Amino acid sequence: MDPWRTGITDSDETNIFIHGYDVTSLMRQATFTDTIFLLHQGRLPSKEERALFDAILIGVSDHGPAAPSAAAARIVASGNRRSLESAVAAGVLAMGDAHGGAACDCMQMITDGVARAQRESISLQDVAIRTAADAKSERRRLPGMGHRVHTDDPRTRVLFEMARTCGVAGDGVAFMQAMEEAARLQIRPLPVNIDGALSAILYDLGFLPPVGKLIFIIGRVAGVTAQVMEEHKREKPMRVRIPVVYDGPPPREIK
Amino acid sequence: MDPWRTGITDSDETNIFIHGYDVTSLMRQATFTDTIFLLHQGRLPSKEERALFDAILIGVSDHGPAAPSAAAARIVASGNRRSLESAVAAGVLAMGDAHGGAACDCMQMITDGVARAQRESISLQDVAIRTAADAKSERRRLPGMGHRVHTDDPRTRVLFEMARTCGVAGDGVAFMQAMEEAARLQIRPLPVNIDGALSAILYDLGFLPPVGKLIFIIGRVAGVTAQVMEEHKREKPMRVRIPVVYDGPPPREIK
Amino acid sequence: MDPWRTGITDSDETNIFIHGYDVTSLMRQATFTDTIFLLHQGRLPSKEERALFDAILIGVSDHGPAAPSAAAARIVASGNRRSLESAVAAGVLAMGDAHGGAACDCMQMITDGVARAQRESISLQDVAIRTAADAKSERRRLPGMGHRVHTDDPRTRVLFEMARTCGVAGDGVAFMQAMEEAARLQIRPLPVNIDGALSAILYDLGFLPPVGKLIFIIGRVAGVTAQVMEEHKREKPMRVRIPVVYDGPPPREIK
Amino acid sequence: MDPWRTGITDSDETNIFIHGYDVTSLMRQATFTDTIFLLHQGRLPSKEERALFDAILIGVSDHGPAAPSAAAARIVASGNRRSLESAVAAGVLAMGDAHGGAACDCMQMITDGVARAQRESISLQDVAIRTAADAKSERRRLPGMGHRVHTDDPRTRVLFEMARTCGVAGDGVAFMQAMEEAARLQIRPLPVNIDGALSAILYDLGFLPPVGKLIFIIGRVAGVTAQVMEEHKREKPMRVRIPVVYDGPPPREIK
Q: Do residue B229 and residue C214 have CB atoms under 8 angstroms apart?
């Protein structure tokens, strides 16, 4: 079998190097957040980038036991008391397109929008107006925008404020704010939500779209593991009793 | 890298052989149940063994959307609309010790019990009495025995009846029936449940204990996949709203 | 919480009914393959349909330890000796678009092709010619067609022959055979492979496209479980040693 | 259905509180590592505790593509190009008893050892001698101790040194160092490895044994996600070709 190629982590008998940095140096001088950034970007973040990246990871870390990731993890933990990793993995699997997956779609929308502005020599505002109009006519939802309740998400406000203060805010943040304005004028108020805010900033930090979802997973695993431990400490096995109503065919005989 | 050894399935450029049988011959002349048996036992079952094995797989195939395997799969399907395999895998992960895992523990109890009867030259009835007494004094639950409602499981009755009719019933069935009698006398009525019944029969069919759980998984995957499809066809994304009550610390400031 | 609706499986204190059939009647009179069909179609198959469905499930049940599903399951089994369900779930997760997922895409191509023939009142052959031409000009691969080695898959031959003998072959089989002819004339010989053959037949049996992948999963889980058991019985923990070559940055200091 | 109880995370229409702290305050003032600690301990760490916790998470974050977690994730990524979460989940599932699971077993050994010292009023050194002697006579491996190559793991040295400098080192570190000495005298040199070192420190930080494995998972998910992205960016679908040798029965006919 051909050896597998990698540019991420090297090791010899005694040492491990991540993108060239001895892991023991990182342990002494860096934070876990630095290391997550390094693993995905191949370089250590600046102090400002680290603060923003920390804020993103914290912002998605937990949303209580009713989020699909936590609920799936708890139900598995309830039927499977011996394998903690099974419960955590089930939580990861719930992070699909409808839960946590908006980040990937939103980063793609930003990537396409910024590329279009450059290609067609128009402003991000103009691209945003056309993107919102297209979504409206095709009845598509705009990823990273809108809430169940029509208010601002305070996490979005904090992220955008920090991004501006740090000097990280660039085309990503500008485009999402243009999208918010375009949606308000053409569709209805659709405030940028946490998925949209972290997508804008991850774009400005240089990440590729699929990494949006991976960062969501890294952050949320912190919460899912805590939910699994609480299930084990506080609850009995098989305690979940979901009410069911059957509306299929009545009893019948095999002919 | 050394090649991986296997005695199960071989293939050349055009043909696939399972334990030596050309897969196209199996497709023409065998059933899926035969093939599951073959993959795990290295031989095709007799007509009687196949009928029993079919009955076991059917008996565990589905128990509605509230079983942990189906509930976990549906919650993942609800947050993850694009990856059916993620939802099915979450259902598999819920089949731990507390849900579907009794088969492995029960087959181990049977294996130990029959071995002890031979080693100590005592009857299976005597071993059963001691096993029940030990469980009582150590406050351990007996795997494969007992129901939430104190009645017989009709699936157990069918399996034991088929096993006797087919001539497959051996030490496994005899030991579990001795356990039922021993529990009734020393603890309380603990009828053999579906996990206990299939464990007894899988033991008599020559399977090793861990295979008990794997057979449960194979059977239940049929139901989990159907539950996942129904979730996608009938329900909206993110539709599950589990009620939550928070009883942790009140709002506080970072010091 | 609103109760979850289901039309698949009902149960009271003592009985379980699948689409209205008492599970104990199924255990006595039906096969596991009948039950898989019932769970997904809401009716029991005819004798001919059952034979074909058995052949499909057998045809995909195993392809040795090097298939991604088996390889992923074995590597997990190698690092995780206590949780069999974790290894099986990893095998399920490997069944994505590139491995086992062609069935879903191919059933969609058939569904679209047959609908187009009806809508435009043209023959399936004409639709096939246009579909192949479109794929060629857009440089898209045709799902369910082509082999690494340019020969027929004997499993395809058996499935198509059985489908014709049983009287099940309909538009699905006809369209895939027209596609084979169209590809041969316009692109290059791309024989219908096992994914294409089972897609054609599942279409003719009345299944929806996503079920194509679910049937692949049900069949392959039989093989994955056997591969996991063999890993546990024959191999040591952590035995897999994949050769790696690092081509990233050389050792460097944190600045 | 009864509501699910939780003491971890609360939310109203607009705000999220983790153990009482508004998540936007954490985003502004805390690190991701603080938040992981908070989610699992119910309090924020001191500066010293945070530094140690960062070092642990970094120390386990990646070990290249050949570690079972990364290898399983890459094989799934290779067959499943559309579902990143499936690949990450497979990586999580590989973290069983033999890979990453030593932390849980080792934390249990420390917990039992310290409890025994208090109960029997003997020193940690005496308990370590008895623990090593028992393991030797029962031919059990000591969790968290020993390497494939008989040298010190530099990550262990760094962790123990930081723990002492920070004033966090307590009974956990003392007991593992006593175990190293006891093993050297009675068995053979078995240096404390990274799993043993992080177990000692997590014990001294007040974590329960199962959390040892969960912390390993949180740290390693950072590496697994990076490995999955590299697989997608650099490699083709289905590129893994594991060599296989078949040693089962020769071709035979169905009788």
A: yes
Query: In the complex, which subunits touch C with 3 or more CB pairs below 8 angstroms?
Result: A, B, D
What would you measure as the largest C-alpha separation in chain D, in angstroms?
74
> Residues 85..104 of B with a Cβ closer than 8 Å to D: which?
85-86, 89, 93
Residue C161 pairs with which residues in a beta bridge?
none
Q: What is the DSSP string of B165-234?
A: HHT---HHHHHHHHHHHHHHHHT----B-HHHHHHHHHHHTT--HHHHHHHHHHHHHHHHHHHHHHHHHH
Amino acid residing at A84: L
Write down the residue that tokens 């057979």 correspond to.
Answer: B215
Return the sign of the alpha-carbon dihedral for residues A198, A204, A209, A211: negative
State the DSSP H helix or E strand holding residue C176, giving kind and residue range, or none if neither: helix C171-186
What is the residue-wise DSSP string for C14-57? S-EEETTEEHHHHHHH--HHHHHHHHHHSSPPPHHHHHHHHHHH
CB contact (8 A) between residue B62 and residue C151: no
Report the amino acid identity of residue C206: G
Nearest to D92 among A85, A223, A241 (CB): A85
Q: How far is C117 from chain D (nearest CA, A)?
A: 30
Kindly state the tokens that stand for C233: 């019985």
Interface contact D69, partner C, CB < 8 A: yes
Q: Which residue carries 């021993």 as its tokens?
A: B182
Tell whether C246 is within 8 A of chain D (Cβ): yes
Q: How far is A164 from chain D (nearest CA, A)?
A: 13
Among D80, D19, D47, CA closest to D237: D80
Which residue, among A167, A189, A220, A180, has the nearest Cα to A61 in the 3D structure?
A220
Using the Cβ of B66 and the Cβ atoms of chain C, whether some distance falls under 8 Å is answered with yes
Query: According to the model, what pLDDT value does residue C150 have?
Result: 54
Q: Cβ of C242 and A4 within 8 Å? A: yes
State whether A225 and D32 contact (CB < 8 Å): no
Asked whether C19 and C8 are in contact (CB, 8 A), the reply is yes
- Of residues D125, D128, D130, the one with CA closest to residue D144: D128
- A32 C-beta neighbours (distance < 10 Å), count: 28
Residue of B nearest to C225 (CA): B214
pLDDT tens by residue, D150-201? 578 899 999 999 999 999 999 999 999 999 999 999 999 999 999 999 999 9
pLDDT tens, position by position, A52-68: 999 999 999 999 999 99
Q: What is the pLDDT of residues A155-178, one digit of tens each?
A: 999 999 999 999 999 999 999 999
User: What ipTM was reported for this prediction?
Assistant: 0.96
